[in-house]
Amino acid sequence: MAWQTAETRRRLKEAATEEFAEFGPHGTTVDRIAARAGVNKERLYKYFGNKEQLFSAVLSDELAKIAAAVPLESLLAEGIGEYAGQVFDYHAANPYLVRLLHWEGLTFQGEVPGEPGRTEYYRHKVTAFAAAQREKVLVGDMEAADLVFFVIALAAWWFAVPQVARMLTGENTDDEAECGRRRAAVVSAARRLAQP
Amino acid sequence: MAWQTAETRRRLKEAATEEFAEFGPHGTTVDRIAARAGVNKERLYKYFGNKEQLFSAVLSDELAKIAAAVPLESLLAEGIGEYAGQVFDYHAANPYLVRLLHWEGLTFQGEVPGEPGRTEYYRHKVTAFAAAQREKVLVGDMEAADLVFFVIALAAWWFAVPQVARMLTGENTDDEAECGRRRAAVVSAARRLAQP
DNA sequence: TCAATGTCCAACTAAACAGTTGGACATTGA
DNA sequence: TCAATGTCCAACTGTTTAGTTGGACATTGA
User: Nearest Cβ partner of B185 from A24, A142, A161?
Assistant: First the structure.
């Protein structure tokens, strides 16, 4: 029998993504991750160090995924409304990232793993927004960084506090029609925020 | 010596508020709450049932506090921008609630303790916003519930994912000037969202 | 072929955890 | 005054936790 090294790593990370997104760093147990992956937990420590480093690895992977899935080019091409809509769609289809980011924000204070690289990633976004402002595609009297931040907020907030969303709109979160309605609201709000 | 019943309850709830806000339902231990309150943990179980019920009691108290501190009347009186600014100010001065709400949103799926009463509370907000829309003080072509939701999002998002805020704006969260800048951005964004 | 190294696992350890118990002592009301 | 009840606490229980260990077996390279 050949080694299953790569597959074992992959299965651990996949199981960890689901567990961490659902229960957070504190609520997740390494036993459950290992059981879900069908792998002995000793592997987890050999491959990833410990629970916290595994959390970082998982989050880093998910950040790479959204960067690939929602390219910044669509901002200039289709406008900020559609860009916000795409971010919303991504979160609706793949709810791991937004939950992981929130667990991280709540759990770790001070500098966060991979912060320099991630800051650079956000800087690209801000630069693109600033360029769009200079070309008068976006409102000019709001700082680009704030605009990026608000657009992400509009799209992600629904998934961060679903209980508040439910109590406010009186609708079920799993309802497909409601999901479409929320997307439309996000698109329209983003446009409104950024109209020149 | 007289009983300290009320004081004991108060100290437990105060300690629990701080611990739950910092570490969340899973990350908090009843031993630490009791130690912080300077009270035996058996009191916690007698007075509040268990850890989860104590979390509910704490969150419920904090919701009552913000409802009292940011009255809805200021919406019509001073406009939506200043209303959003007041929500921001409240969160900046008292960061417990926003963190508790997020812990709750991430931790509990499905119905949440006290949901009917809280839904009613949000309904008042929506009704007030809808009234403002009819009086042409707010934009009319966006559902009132969505508008409320977005205004809360703009004000609260900074405190929910401070690491993202820091990476985007490149500034320290504790910086007073940066805090003022963020408040101004929230006010301006809320106005933009709701201009008729 | 064989020593070195990597994979994998069952079983383990020490600590932390939520929740309980039994009893000392204070308060109340009849 | 005294039985009933409430407050408070140290010490406890049984379980779950993150992380480790020792050893069986697979793979590699010289």
Answer: A142
